[in-house]
Design brief:
Layout: H1 6-35, H2 46-53, H3 57-69, E1 73-75, E2 81-83, H4 88-111, H5 115-129, H6 134-151, H7 155-178, H8 184-203, H9 206-222
Antiparallel strand pairs: 1-2
Helix pairs in contact: 1-3, 1-7, 2-3, 4-6, 4-7, 4-8, 4-9, 5-6, 5-8, 6-7, 8-9
C-alpha cells in the first residue's frame, strides 16, 4: 500500500508529463530553427504552438525559455518571442570561443586518451566518409568535436561547449543553405584533418594537441563565411 497521498502522486505525474512535453517541443522547435523552417527574426507564438500541438501553454513556455537559454530565441520588452538573428559579431564570438574551448579540451583529452574514445572518433570518420549531404557532414563534424570535448573530462569546458553548440548548429545550418553540395575536396580534407587530430591526441602530447586543435578549428573558421 502506497504511503504517498493520491493527490501528490497525481501532481507528480502531471509535472513529469509537462516536462516530457516540454522536452519534445523544445527538440522540435530547435530543429525547425536550425533547419531554417523558422527563419531568423520570425515570430514564435506560444498560443499557436500550444494549439497546433494540442497541449497547454505551460510546456510550450518551458520550451521557449530553454531555447532562450540556448540563444536560439529572444523575447522583447513586452514578452513577444522571435527566432534569434545572429550577427557577424555573434558568429565571431562563437567561433572565438570554439577555438579557445577546443584547444584547451584537446590538451586534456590527450592526457587521458583511451581506446574507447579512439573507436568512437574512428567510427565518426567512417560515417563521414560515406556521407552524401552537407547536413550529414556538418552534424558529424560537430559530433566529432563534441566527442573530443567530452574526452577532456573537464565538466566546465564541456558545459561551456554545450552552451554554444545550439548557436553553432544554427550558424552551420545557415552555411549549408548557402551551398548546394559538399565538394569531394572539402570532405577529404576534413576527414584527413580529423584523422590527424586523432593521431595527435593518441600521442599524449598535450602541447601539440592544443596547438593542432587551435590551428584546425581556426583554419576551418577562416575558410567559411562569418558574415550574416
Amino acid at each position: 500500500m502506497s504511503l504517498v497521498p493520491s493527490s501528490k502522486r497525481s501532481s507528480s505525474r502531471s509535472v513529469a508529463r509537462r516536462q516530457t512535453l516540454a522536452l519534445s517541443i523544445t527538440e522540435a522547435l530547435r530543429q525547425e530553427i536550425v533547419s531554417g523552417v523558422r527563419s531568423p527574426g520570425s515570430k514564435v507564438s506560444e498560443p499557436s504552438i500550444a494549439g497546433s500541438q494540442n497541449v497547454s501553454r505551460a510546456p510550450v513556455r518551458e520550451a521557449l525559455r530553454q531555447l532562450e537559454r540556448e540563444g536560439l530565441v529572444v523575447f522583447d520588452a513586452v514578452g513577444r518571442c522571435r527566432v534569434v538573428e545572429l550577427t557577424s559579431d555573434d558568429v565571431e564570438d562563437i567561433c572565438g570561443l570554439r577555438v579557445s574551448l577546443e584547444s584547451t579540451a584537446a590538451s586534456h583529452a590527450a592526457a587521458r586518451f583511451s581506446d574507447a574514445t579512439q573507436r568512437v572518433l574512428h567510427d565518426n570518420l567512417e560515417q563521414m566518409e560515406s556521407a552524401t549531404t552537407l547536413d550529414e557532414v556538418s552534424m558529424l563534424d560537430l559530433a566529432f568535436h563534441g566527442e573530443v570535448m567530452e574526452a577532456s573530462g573537464r565538466r566546465r569546458l564541456i558545459a561551456a561547449w554545450r552552451a554554444i553548440e545550439p548557436q553553432l548548429r544554427l550558424w552551420l545550418g545557415t552555411l549549408q543553405r548557402r551551398r548546394e553540395a559538399i565538394s569531394a575536396d572539402v570532405l577529404a580534407s576534413t576527414v584527413a584533418a580529423h584523422r590527424q587530430l586523432i593521431e595527435v591526441l593518441a600521442s599524449g602530447d598535450r602541447t601539440r594537441a592544443r596547438e593542432f586543435a587551435a590551428f584546425h578549428v581556426a583554419s576551418w573558421v577562416d575558410g567559411n563565411d562569418t558574415t550574416m
